Amino acid sequence: QRVEIVKALYRGAALLILDEPTAVLTPQEVDELFITLRKMAREGHALIFISHKLHEVLDISDRITVLRDGRVVGSKPTADTSKAELARMMVGRELAVAGERIERAPGPVRLELRGISALSDRGTQALRQVNLQVRAGEILGLAGVSGNGQRELAEVITGLRPATAGQVLLGGEDLTGATPDRTMERGLAYIPEERNRDGMIREFTVSENLILREHAKQPYARAGFLSFRAIERISAELIDRFNVKTPSLDTPMKNLSGGNVQKVILARELSRRPDVLIAAQPARGLDIGAAEYVHLRLLDQRNAGTATLLISEDLDEILALSDRIVVIYEGQIMGEVRRESATPEQLGLLMAGVAPEARAS
User: Interior CA angle at 64 toward 59 and 70, to 5°?
Assistant: First the structure.
């Protein structure tokens, strides 16, 4: 990010537009970036800071303009507004404070990784001896700066990428190297990071995407033929239950908003009542209202006993939803902290590769 700013200044830029500039930074690096931005503003540069992270907008800006559906909702001096007011402007209504979190001891281990290693698409080492456990009725948050092995970890668990070492156990059964179909049959659900590429087929209709996982099974099919009445009935129920806004069941998925695409994926995956849920960046790119809906659904799954691995680069999301938090750096687990005792500063150091013992010394 510093290099990009220096390049812009070298070219003599008087106006600098920063679009989600903190997405790949640790909290400590964000603080350093903001020092640089404030210095630039004092020196007479004009800055436009685009972000969905309200606390950052309130920290760095002088004025805030809110857009909703491509239109300006309002503009206010930063000193005269609050996070709650900005959220209300962004969504057009009051947001839920938080989902109900039922406090109870977690159940048995549903997902376990033992010494998992794997290669990236480039053939370099992406995961190095990863060990973790996720129990029934808990959300384990996996935090880290983008590109530190999160995608490869999710793909190894779901059977989309081979492990070079280690074991994946689902419900105590060794499923290392199993196909995605096999992991699904053993109770795994997956909300992929790239929803438009891996989570749906753009040209298929809403109802077709809802049955993708089990289209060849009853009640969707009988004797090798699709049962269109059952597909229509169940799809309509899911659309209503998951509040999907679509003109019809036959609308192509490519015509839906990002939030509604994610709701269709949630409806398909969660309606199977999974034992284990892998949620990779589940609210990335969504407006604050759609993100709120996704978060409430994840908490509902936790309370229902699902073991959830939440993979996110958004520390606010991790801290709000997780029971335990582990941090990954360069394919290794750097440490684990409880939600109650975790701080952004502590997690930021782990995300930068600073081990606890190194800080102690």
Answer: 130
CA separation, residue 6 to residues 2, 9, 20, 100, 255 (Å): 6, 5, 17, 46, 39
Q: Which residues pair with 170 in a beta bridge?
A: 111, 173
Which among 330, 336, 328, 274 is positioned nearest to 305, based on CA atoms? 274
Write out the two tokens for 35.
């020092």
Q: Which residues, in sequence order, are CB contacts of 338 under 8 Å at separation 6+?
A: 323, 324, 325
Cα separation, 98 vs 321, in Å, equals 9
Containing 162, the helix (H) or strand (E) segment is: none
| Amino acid at site 121 | D
Q: Rounded CA gap, 151 and 87, in Å? A: 30
Q: What is the pTM of this model?
A: 0.83
Distances (CA, A) of 285 to 34, 85, 213, 305: 23, 21, 24, 28
**Separation CA 37–CA 47 (nearest Å):** 8
Question: Within 13 A of 185's CA, how many CA atoms are on the CB side?
Answer: 8
Task: Report whether 85 contacts 93 (CB < 8 A).
Answer: no
| pLDDT above 80 for 212 | yes
Q: What would the pLDDT profile of 94-114 be if each residue is shown by its tens digit?
A: 665 555 667 778 899 999 999
Q: Return d(Cα 107, Cα 59) in angstroms, integer.
A: 40
Give CA–CA dist 184/269, Å, rounded. 10
Question: DSSP state, 251?
Answer: S
Query: Cβ distance 76 to 45 under 8 Å?
Result: no
Q: Whose CA is closest to 228, among 205, 207, 201?
A: 207
